[in-house]
Amino acid sequence: MAASNASSFLISLLISLLLFASMQLFRSQLASSQPMTIAGGFIGSMVFVSLLTALSNFEMNTFGPTYQARVFPEVFICLFVSMICCACVHRVCVTTCLIFSLIALFYINRISASTYGSSSVPATGYATQNFSVKKKQK
């Protein structure tokens, strides 16, 4: 059974707070070597995903079930907050967090499109015409 928007908001907010707290708790270990700074960026991208989930569920609970998160401001805000969390650990964590977060956002968008499927075609303002050439019969 799926969780409601309110409970999913609370769960994902708690997960993001726990991930941020663990990043701060293990700051010296995460900044000690190159593989650990990459791991810190990955943890930061998990903060991004959980914050985006929390914010989207909060907005769906507030504005209705058809409300969708957009690139601006929701994604930018969550990405900025997760990069600030990574900046408290190490500079390289910010870069790897950005890379991992963009990859995660690509797959989130792909899963969302396959699940909820948008059948609308963007309007271009051009009329479509059939330019098939008919052969003249002799």
From TrEMBL:
Its main location: membrane. This is Dolichyl-diphosphooligosaccharide--protein glycosyltransferase subunit KCP2. It is found in: Membrane. GO terms for cellular component: membrane. The chain crosses the membrane at residues 6-26, 38-55, 75-108. Belongs to the KRTCAP2 family. It is a multi-pass membrane protein. Keywords: Membrane, Transmembrane, Transmembrane helix. It comes from the Eukaryota. InterPro entries: KRTCAP2. It comes from Rotaria socialis. Pfam families: Keratin_assoc.
